[in-house]
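Hi L.,

As promised, UDP-N-acetylmuramoylalanine--D-glutamate ligase:
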Amino acid sequence: MRLVILGGGESGIGTAILGKKKGYEVFVSDFGKIKGNYKEVLIINGIVWEEEKHTEDLILNADVVMKSPGIPDKSPIVKKLVEKGIPVLSEIEFAAPFTDATIIGITGSNGKTTTTMLTHHLLKSAGLNVGLGGNIGKSFAWQIADNKYDSYVLELSSFQLDGILNFKPHIAIITNISPDHLDRYDYKYENYIDSKFRITMNQTEEDYLIYDADDEAIAEWFKTHTTKAKLIPFSLTKTFSEGAYIKNNKMEISINQEEFTMDTEHIALEGKHNMKNAMAATSVAKLMQIRKSTIRESLSNFQGVEHRLEKVLKIQNVQYINDSKATNVNATFFALDSMNTPTVWIVGGVDKGNDYNELMSLVREKVKAIICLGVDNKKIIDVFGNVVDMMIEVDNMNDAVRMAQRLSEKGDTVLLSPACASFDLFESYEDRGNQFKQAVKNL
């Protein structure tokens, strides 16, 4: 069997190693450059590869193809594979049959990284032999090749879910759905929503779907679709006989006739959206029969996720917050919503079809100045130009942070929450967040 892998990043290399171990003839092809450390792994494992090109003769003879999530379905080589009827899978679909571990799959437009990390933290603290992968950390396929975990917590993007056929998590979570990556879905929101719900398409009555019952897009989907999985909703406003909710500042969870309660003030994560993430993760812990005392302790000592509302430093009584991971409007909505001081907001980057009007009421209420950090800021300026007193454009992070310091006064917050992808001025959202932290430290 010939396995061809498109993309020589983390998921591609991991799949190559697993494929080789399972007896496939493996070929890796990357249209860009493959990083040096990944090349070494390929060479050590005797795996054939190419970079900066896709040689059709070496690709179109595949029995199966694993496509990295970053490569669009519209790319010419993918179209040719589909025309020839060659299966094009995601790493998750390729790897899953090679493990009998319990799989917890987490998707959503926002909150999925925090929920994934918190779920992993809850299970690991309870002594479970659990792996962390998918969209974060080490490749899922690579871990199956190298480790023997009893369960995996996987963060799954819509792109990864687009490439599944039979993949089925025992426990699935949809944290929320808001417009994102619409450029990859023909600018049709319903296509993106359907893509997220692929997480539950193969689930049976033995499986569980945990979801945000306050979410409009999720509620709409349920009006015309069903899933076989047992439903466990969570909400900030409703209560359930089976599910999770907040009542009188207590998180209450009822699953399989078992109750769990905890005062929200003892939960380390702050903000309404994080209460939802905590309810989702705790629901998993309950399903996995983790002891209540362990859950409480883990919820109270969880450190949060880098680049997600990460407090960097307080300088002259101004708090600097790195929320570089906010790559869409909905994520930035959560960030602005959790601000309770006048805010200098650093925003901008590669726009993925954003509607900034959703932020209007929060910007009017909380934002005193906007610093645009992107190559093209026209849309942001058009929407907010007349709403805030100060609007400034910069083209690098040092200028953004220095300008923010000038515009802020005691008691204010400087918030980097770009609502956009980072690829115009930075390598990645991590690079953007790290540059912000460095610039703050240099003040």
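The chain has 17 helices and 20 strands.

Thanks again for sending the construct details.

K.
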